[in-house]
Amino acid sequence: MSRRIEGPASGRFPDVPAYDDGTWVHDRAWAGEARSAVGCAALMLGLSLVFDAGSGRLTALRFLLWAALAFVLFAVLLPARVSAREGEFVCQGLFGHRSVYTDRLVAVCRSDGVAQRLVLRDEFGGRVEFDPRVLVDNPALWRLLDEGARASAAGGSLVCGTTELRRLSERLDRETARTVFRISGLE
């Protein structure tokens, strides 16, 4: 069992181990999505440079402009890497990471819109936001979140979000059943 912090500490989470620690569970699809983001940005940069060079208008300034736009596209397409261990959930983005203690959650919300996001907040002010499909694709991450949320509810800290967690659980059960039927040929 890993050592736990019981409250906010200087530097937020000073004892968070490196991601190569065996106790961490990671999003299995993240590497493929990151490669896709790199590929899209590289393709956009390459096509822009080819068209600009073909028209004879390619300059150093235009190259920098196209490279900056390709980087912005990469930053937009790169998903956060979701990792978890017992009692803790971490989302690591391009410019840093955010963490929450799952056994100290106060709210679980879903933001609707073009891209659905699941938002977790803990009693120490931690907040993470990620795509709920990550939980569908990674049952181990869902198990860790569910166990922590149950501990939060039992401890009385989870005041908002039990309905959302129930809906998410039902969605995961439906997706799992569809996958089982598809694999077994019963769909």
TrEMBL record:
<keyword id="KW-0812">Transmembrane</keyword>
<feature type="transmembrane region" description="Helical">
    <location>
        <begin position="34"/>
        <end position="51"/>
    </location>
</feature>
<keyword id="KW-0472">Membrane</keyword>
<feature type="transmembrane region" description="Helical">
    <location>
        <begin position="63"/>
        <end position="82"/>
    </location>
</feature>
<protein>
    <recommendedName>
        <fullName>Integral membrane protein</fullName>
    </recommendedName>
</protein>
<keyword id="KW-1133">Transmembrane helix</keyword>
